[in-house]
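Is this the right way to post C-alpha cells for a design question? Let me know if I should format differently. Anyway, here goes:
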C-alpha cells in the first residue's frame, strides 16, 4: 500500500514539474516573440506611436475608408504593445517624430500626404514616384531602374520603408501604396509577416521593400507578398 502511495505521489510531482516546465517554456516563448515584435516595429511599452494620416485625393480634409482601416491596424498594433497612440493630419503636422515611432500613411502627392514626399526626398532618394496622367507609367513606383506599374483593382504595389532620421531617436515607417487599398494591404502584411520579414531583410533598423497586392478583385487587400527588397537602391543617393 505504501509503495502505491509513493508511486502516486511521485507521479503527481512529476506531472506538476512537467506542467510547470511547459508553462514556463510557453511563457518564455511568448515573451521572446513579443520582444522581437517590439524591436521590429520600434515600439516600446509606455512609449508613443504617431500616425500621420493622409487626405483622400479628391476630398481634402477627409480620409479614404481603406486608409482609416490601415490607421486602425497600426493603432491596434501599438495598443497591443502597450504604447500610446496619437494621430496627426499630414497637412497640419510640421515637426520631427523625436522619440515617437511614426507611421506615415499615404502616397507622396500634394493632395494626399506631402509629408511622405518630404520623407522620400530626405531619406529615401533612390525612389521616384510617377504622377497621375495618361500612359502606362501613371502612378508607377520606380526604384533601382525598375518600374512597378499600377494595374488598378487588379495588381498594385506599396512601398514600405523604415529609417530613423538623424534628429530622432525612434524610427519612421513609410507606408505608401498606389491606392488606399494598397496602404491597408501593406500594414496588414507587416503585422502578419514581420517575423519572416525580419529574417528576409539585411537589417531591421533600416530597410525598404515593395509589397505586391494581387488578385484584388477576388481577395481584396489580403493576398499580399514581398515583391522585392530594394533597400540598397532606395537609400542610394540619386545620381
Amino acid at each position: 500500500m505504501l509503495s502505491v502511495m509513493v508511486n502516486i505521489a511521485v507521479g503527481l510531482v512529476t506531472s506538476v514539474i512537467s506542467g510547470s516546465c511547459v508553462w514556463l517554456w510557453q511563457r518564455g516563448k511568448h515573451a521572446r516573440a513579443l520582444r522581437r515584435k517590439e524591436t521590429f516595429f520600434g515600439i516600446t511599452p509606455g512609449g508613443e506611436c504617431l500616425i500621420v494620416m493622409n487626405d483622400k485625393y479628391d476630398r481634402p480634409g477627409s480620409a479614404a475608408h481603406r486608409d482609416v482601416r490601415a490607421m486602425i491596424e497600426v493603432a491596434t498594433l501599438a495598443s497591443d504593445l502597450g504604447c500610446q497612440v496619437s494621430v496627426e493630419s499630414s497637412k497640419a503636422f510640421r515637426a520631427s517624430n523625436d522619440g515617437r515611432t511614426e507611421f506615415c500613411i499615404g502616397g507622396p502627392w500634394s493632395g494626399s500626404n506631402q509629408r511622405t514626399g518630404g520623407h522620400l526626398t530626405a531619406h529615401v532618394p533612390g525612389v521616384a514616384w510617377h504622377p497621375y496622367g495618361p500612359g502606362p507609367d501613371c502612378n508607377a513606383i520606380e526604384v533601382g531602374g525598375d518600374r512597378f506599374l499600377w494595374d488598378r483593382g487588379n495588381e498594385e504595389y506599396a512601398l514600405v520603408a523604415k529609417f530613423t532620421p538623424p534628429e530622432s531617436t525612434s524610427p519612421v515607417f513609410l507606408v505608401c501604396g498606389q491606392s488606399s487599398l494598397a496602404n491597408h494591404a501593406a500594414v496588414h502584411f507587416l503585422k502578419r509577416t514581420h517575423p519572416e520579414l525580419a529574417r528576409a531583410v539585411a537589417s531591421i533598423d533600416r530597410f525598404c521593400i515593395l509589397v505586391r497586392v494581387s488578385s484584388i478583385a477576388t481577395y481584396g487587400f489580403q493576398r499580399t507578398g514581398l515583391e522585392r527588397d530594394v533597400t540598397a537602391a532606395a537609400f542610394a543617393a540619386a545620381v
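Format looks fine. Someone answered above. Worth noting: Residues 1-41 form one domain. The CA atoms of residues 44 and 194 lie 16 Å apart.
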